[in-house]
Every structure is written in structure tokens, then in C-alpha cells.
Amino acid sequence: MSKVVSGNGKCLCGAVEFNVAIVSRHVGVCHCSMCRRWGGGPLMAIDCDTDVVFQGEANITVFDSSEWAERGFCSKCGSHLFYRLKQSGQHIMPAGLFDDQDEFVFDHQVFIDNKPDYYSFANETDDMTEAEVVAKYAPPEG
To answer: Residue 142: CB partners within 8 Å, gap ≥ 6?
Structure first.
């Protein structure tokens, strides 16, 4: 996977800033019903691994959105900051938060079988269904 060394960004109001040590260049889109309800449309995000440093953490509210993940947002402006996997601490962060987006490439979509019919992207992408995503990321039961 091609990586950018680091990335910086902030929420809309600037109350929360962040630095990411390893940023994937690969933008993915999530079509699950939770992401669409969270942001009013599909989530366009990048994998930022686990080494994310936030400034203004007092302004971050975290919502426990599923058994395996939580979502963070700025309590001042409401900007979505991350989708974080509980088990690994891996952060998936909205691509639009980053100061430098020049190297980003939109190349994959998840929960493709949940995508409503009223929109479609022209990019050729690698796609995963809900079952494929759950099999890959959900912790084993028991």
C-alpha cells in the first residue's frame, strides 16, 4: 500500500487539530447506513492507522456506534473526525479534514451493496459488500 509519510488537518472551526504519522493515499467510500446517517451521504475517508495525535482533545466527543467501532466529532462545530476500530485503535478519517489532499486517490468502496440508487461514482474501484467487511473487521464472537 502506498503511503504518505504524515498528514495534518483540522475540523471546520479549528478547535481540534491533528497530526497523523502514517496516512494512506487511498480514499475509500463507505455506503453503510450509519455513515450515510452520520454525514448525510457516503463517508469519504482514508486509513490513518493508529498513530494519530490530536490537539484540542477536550473538544472531541466520542460516540460508541457499534460493537467494534466508535465515531468522534468536534463538540464545537460538529465536524466528523474519525471512525475508530476499538480492538486495534485504527483511525479512519474523513479525507476532507486534511490540509494537503493532492496525493489522495479514490480507489475503493465498502458496503457497496448498501449504496442507495440515487447516486453513483464514475471511478473504477475495488468494492466490498457488507458481508465481506464484517468478515474482515468484526471481532470474532464468543
So the answer is: none
Q: How many domains does the chain have?
A: 1
Tell me whether residue 137 is in a domain: no
- Cα Rg of the chain, angstroms: 15
Grid cell 474482515 is found at 136
Helix (H) / strand (E) element for 27: namely strand 26-30
| Residue 73 CB burial class (10 angstroms; 0-12, 13-18, ≥19) | buried
Question: Domain of 73: which CATH number?
Answer: 2.170.150.70
Inter-residue contact 42 to 91 (CB < 8 Å): no
Give domain status of residue 80, yes or no: yes
Is there a domain that residue 122 lies in? yes
pLDDT tens digits, one per residue of 76-121 = 999 999 999 999 999 999 999 999 999 899 999 999 999 999 999 9
Q: Residue 45 belongs to what domain range?
A: 3-127
CA-to-CA distance for 111 and 131, rounded, in angstroms? 8
